[in-house]
Amino acid sequence: MLADKLIRILVVEDHHVVRKSLVTLLETVAGFEVVGEAGDGVEAINQFHLCQPDVTLIDLRLPGISGAEVVRSIRSEAKHARFIVLTTYDGEDDVYRALRSGAQSYLLKGITRDELIAAIHLVNEGRSHVPPEIFAKLARRLEWEEFTPRESEVLEHIVQGRSNKQIAQSLGVSEATIKAHINSLLSKLGVSDRTQAAMTAIQRGLVTLDFS
Hints:
Helices cover 53% and strands 12% of the residues. The protein is built from ten helices and five strands; from the N terminus they run βαβαβαβαβαααααα. Strands 2-1-3-4-5 form a five-stranded parallel sheet, sandwiched between helices. Strand 1 (7-12), helix 1 (16-27) and strand 2 form a beta-alpha-beta unit. The protein is elongated, with a radius of gyration of 19 Å. The model has no long low-confidence stretch (mean pLDDT 89).
């Protein structure tokens, strides 16, 4: 890369004030050029193809399509694409999904200006940047037993407060089958009841609550 080449940045953030603050901050940095903005997942994909940024800053939770899904979608077509997830969510599964999707860095919004600038430079150079505390969360996630697709469905219903009978009716299976799935979930999560399972699922980012 030539020393005088600007780093072209796309900012993807659904909160308008936060996005504008990030854009304003980045535009004060010598060598950075903000080439586009997006407030949701679909717009992010469109803006990426339109602007062809060197580095994309992207939040994890976005309207319509999640940040991880945006990263996965773009990198399936553009292997060179470089992403920094910048978010408030630090659950082990949040980290795991984002990095597995192809993001090169995972940062929390509490980082300093200098830390963000350094991360952008590193990712632009083709390097990964995962802070130690985030790497520790990824390591813990890799130790988990994987859930089956059906167990993941059941867990989502548990977090939504549904009874075994309601879950069984929704999934078209018997209550005994649901009870077996729940017992397996409790064992894998290392908890003793449904309430603890729901709390753990939310804390780890296994299930996203939708307040819309």
